[in-house]
Amino acid sequence: AVFDRIDAVELKVKAYLCLLREEARAQARAVDDRIAAGEEVPPLAGIPVAVKDNICMLGVETTCASKILKGFVPPYDATVIERLKKEGVLFTGKTNMDEFAMGSSTENSGFFPTANPWDLERVPGGSSGGSAAAVAAGEAVMALGSDTGGSIRQPAAFCGVVGLKPTYGLVSRYGLVAFASSLDQIGPITRDVRDCALLLNAIAGHDPRDSTSVPYAVPDYTGFLVPDIKGWRIGIPREYVGEGIAPEVRAVLDRTVDLLAGLGATVGEISLPHTKYALPTYYLIAPAEASSNLARYDGVRYGLRVPAEDVISMYKKTRSAGFGAEVKRRIMLGTYALSAGYYDAYYLKALKVRTLIRRDFDAAFEKFDLLLSPTSPTPAFKMGEKIADPLAMYLSDICTLAVNLAGLPAISVPAGFAGNLPVGVQFIAPPFAEGRLLQAAYALE
Ligand code: GLN
């Protein structure tokens, strides 16, 4: 049924970079055989899942939507893929994204943009836009995305689906192509909160192959699917609802506050005073790490190579042809911030401010169980609207970036509409309180 749906709508939505039709059929037959043999199969057995194209899958081309990785076929599975294979999941294909996950609209894909299924002239958000659009359009039942500064939550909000960014260290990054290693996390994009809990159950947990993976005893997240948040204290950070938030987004947030109060929660205001530094801090740390991580694309080890007379010209020609404009911009910003003479003023300063941002959250969670905000300041914008203005594009993640800097978990849930466009709200929790996020989201659903 999912592949029929893909046949019907994919030409318009363009969520996928590649489809795994035959492989999925074989995986489906294998699950059928297990059931026929009387085996009790895991909850996700036979469920069609789409995978963002920065997650390595054995034998399947993985490009991060970059021309520089064209032709790269990983010789191994990411840990999340290995775990989902054990569950008996069917993989539908690899989804489109902003090149190397740098962007908020999927327009930075090195191949083609993806459309928002709710309005084909608008963006699905990004960078996990292909995954969110696939789930929203019924071209997959669930999907994996990755979130460095909002790339699961913002596209989930734009496409009217659920997206969860786990606590840093909960889900293994082994096999996730690195963008900014201290911020990246893989997480679920699903149609509802129950699916989100099920997919998180399958991917969370310690992995010795990722040195930042935390040895944490993962609970069964479906145990949190009880619609009861009576007495919970929910804080709205003042800085997240000020200037720049569209009135129709504000209206959805206000309605959500009423619903939460109706469910017996108390909602109050809180200040996170360092919020104004989140965007500049992120755009020093993320490009700094990216400039180091992307140094491996040299035309020798992976994907594209443009031949030239000597090795230095080969590097230059390969990188000039292989990287898109936004990726080049980030590499230059990051290299500058890390260079001798500027390191202390920019990168080191950003690390210090990152600590202050985390402390704001620590203080807030002494008073509140959860924080609530818009996921993004606006609903899905028109294709082409922000592509020529990087700063306008960066502002699309103003409500999500600080969460990654602080390593916290957060979820975006559909909470209403602006005209025919879905609007999401974001809950933020203390480290490893994913259960609390799911419980609040489930109560709202
Ligand atoms: N839009 C932000 C960026 O371009 C966040 C991307 C992400 O979370 N991968 O860096």
How many strands? Answer: 11
Q: Identify the strand order in the major beta sheet.
A: 1-3-2-4-6-5-10-11-9-7-8
Give helix and strand order, one letter per element, not per position: HEHEHEHEHEEHEHEHHHHEHHEEH
Amount of beta strand: 5-15%
CATH architecture term of the domain at 2-224: Alpha-Beta Complex
Radius of gyration: 21 Å
As residue ranges, the low-confidence spans are none
If you average the pLDDT, what whole number results? Answer: 97
Fourth-level CATH superfamily of the domain at 2-224: Amidase signature (AS) domain
Indicate the CATH class of the domain at 2-224.
Alpha Beta
Shape, principal axes of CA atoms:
globular
Residue share in helices? 25-40%
Oligomer: single chain
Active site: 52, 127, 151
GO cellular component, one term: glutamyl-tRNA(Gln) amidotransferase complex
InterPro entries: Amidase, Amidase_CS, Amidase_dom, AS_sf, GatA
Catalytic activity: L-glutamyl-tRNA(Gln) + L-glutamine + ATP + H2O = L-glutaminyl-tRNA(Gln) + L-glutamate + ADP + phosphate + H(+)
